[in-house]
Inverse folding.
């Protein structure tokens, strides 16, 4: 039944015969020359094969396409009934300090996404894509741009096989396909309705996706009895309000030949539906809380991707999975629960549940003597208010870890931004009437993302720890042009790039 709701993210893509295909090519604007343009290497080669016909048609069909805008040509080549030429902006773009990303890579992703989508709308099922000098970014744009969650609709989008055009960097292309498919897996999990993606189905789906890598990956789906044995009282207190049993998903990826290498620990919040519990959320927009397991989705999808890439690094992924529901068994405001490390927590707001389940997972994470711990969670609406969808908020006790994450995000374009971990916020969660900690800050509406991070810090002793609050980047409306509207799967590619960077360091 899993394949019905969670099919493969897309066909594997390789170079091949171009018969009957669509084609996406890139074109740059010439700076300071109105209407001037120059073609990418692949587009110039294609133009040469047509004796300059493509250039001629571009000149007579209007201004050069602006960045992300396309011009469609029909019947100009026997093997490509439809050719989309898409604007890449200027050829001078590169890493931009003001934007904290590589503008050239972002322009390529946007352009190839736009061209592929236009051909998909024309029901072209096979598309060759210009590498634009960066095959990985082109592949990411194509794979991410074509994704749409329509598994439960009668009428579905045309399934498109994407291929690298010409004899470009095939290794870079295949790497980009895996990066894109990893993010699409997270999007599938986040977008699926909560009655289809229960804690147990989530765990089964990830196990299925990791099945081709059993030589390197071990999957443990820990049941409620194990959670009780581990004395994870904070996690159990959240799960007990639901009829769905909790699952503690534990993934071990052993990619490093040296098995004594300390593992990277990735921890993801896995609330498969968040009603708010007794502190019930407003009904408007509550359906989006099917994606409150975005932390678990991105963490698990990044490990699936790391395994597919065969990254030479050891990674352990932890995902406490449950629903947060109101019932006679649910947490009540004012209840006091005990976390795995013995600290007591006064639960004054049952809708601040993500930090409760993460508290126990973070305690458990330390038992593996990790190289670093990174947790991801759609934790606070306050994070969305602070940064919107521009970047993931990062709270960390380690300058080194921040630098690694920031460096990775410049490459992926899926940005991060450092936030404060001041004692100012710690005092607001440790000032509790009944227990060691309160699960909401003393001034509940002030600095909510910061007090949530301060709460998590009370369960961390590791030297290198980072908390990624991904609430603001959970969904996409139209901000990221190469993603359609819906759940974003961010920041999966940044987590993968971060892990790849650590793997290179050895």
């Amino acid at each position: 039944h899993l394949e019905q709701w969670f099919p493969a993210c897309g066909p594997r893509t390789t170079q091949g015969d171009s018969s009957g295909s669509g084609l996406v090519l890139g074109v740059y604007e010439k700076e300071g020359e109105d209407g001037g343009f120059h073609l990418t290497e692949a587009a110039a080669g294609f133009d040469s094969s047509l004796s300059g016909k493509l250039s001629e048609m571009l000149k007579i069909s209007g201004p050069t396409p602006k960045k992300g805008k396309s011009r469609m040509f029909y019947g100009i080549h026997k093997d490509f009934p439809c050719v989309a030429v898409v604007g890449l902006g200027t050829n001078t773009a590169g890493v931009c300090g003001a934007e904290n990303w590589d503008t050239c890579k972002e322009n390529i992703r946007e352009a190839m996404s736009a061209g592929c989508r236009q051909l998909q709308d024309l029901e072209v099922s096979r598309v060759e894509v210009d590498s634009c000098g960066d095959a990985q970014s082109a592949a990411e744009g194509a794979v991410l741009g074509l994704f749409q969650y329509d598994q439960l609709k009668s009428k579905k989008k045309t399934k498109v096989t994407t291929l690298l055009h010409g004899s470009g960097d095939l290794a870079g292309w295949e790497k980009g396909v895996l990066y894109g498919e990893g993010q699409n897996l997270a999007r599938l999990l986040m977008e699926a309705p909560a009655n289809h993606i229960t804690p147990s189905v989530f765990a089964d789906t990830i196990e299925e996706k990791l099945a081709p890598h059993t030589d390197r990956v071990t999957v443990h789906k820990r049941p409620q009895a194990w959670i009780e044995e581990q004395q994870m009282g904070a996690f159990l207190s959240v799960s007990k309000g639901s009829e769905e049993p909790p699952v503690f998903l534990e993934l071990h990826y052993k990619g490093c030949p040296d098995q004594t290498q300390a593992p990277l620990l990735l921890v993801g919040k896995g609330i498969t539906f968040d009603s708010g519990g007794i502190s019930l959320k407003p009904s408007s927009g509550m359906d989006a809380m099917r994606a409150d397991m975005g932390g678990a989705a991105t963490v698990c999808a990044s490990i699936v991707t790391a395994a597919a890439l065969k990254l030479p690094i050891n990674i352990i992924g932890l995902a406490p999975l449950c629903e947060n529901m109101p019932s006679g068994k649910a947490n009540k405001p004012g209840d006091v629960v005990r976390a795995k490390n013995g600290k007591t927590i006064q639960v004054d707001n049952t809708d601040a549940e993500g930090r409760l389940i993460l508290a126990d997972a973070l305690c458990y994470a330390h038992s593996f003597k990790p190289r670093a711990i990174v947790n991801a969670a759609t934790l606070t609406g306050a994070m969305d208010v602070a940064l919107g969808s521009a970047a993931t908020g990062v709270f960390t006790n380690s300058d080194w870890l921040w630098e690694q994450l920031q460096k990775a995000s410049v490459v992926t374009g899926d940005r991060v931004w450092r936030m404060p971990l001041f004692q100012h916020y710690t005092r607001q969660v440790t000032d509790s009437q009944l227990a060691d900690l309160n699960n909401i800050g003393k001034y509940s509406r002030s600095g909510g993302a910061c007090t949530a991070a301060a709460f998590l810090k009370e369960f961390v002793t590791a030297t290198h720890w980072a908390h990624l609050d991904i609430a603001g980047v959970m969904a996409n409306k139209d901000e990221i042009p190469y993603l359609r509207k819906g759940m974003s799967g961010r920041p999966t590619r940044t987590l993968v790039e971060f892990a790849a960077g650590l793997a290179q360091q050895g």
The mean pLDDT is 94. The two ends are 40 Å apart (CA to CA). Residues 273 and 290 are 5 Å apart (CA to CA). DSSP finds 16 helices and 22 strands in the chain.
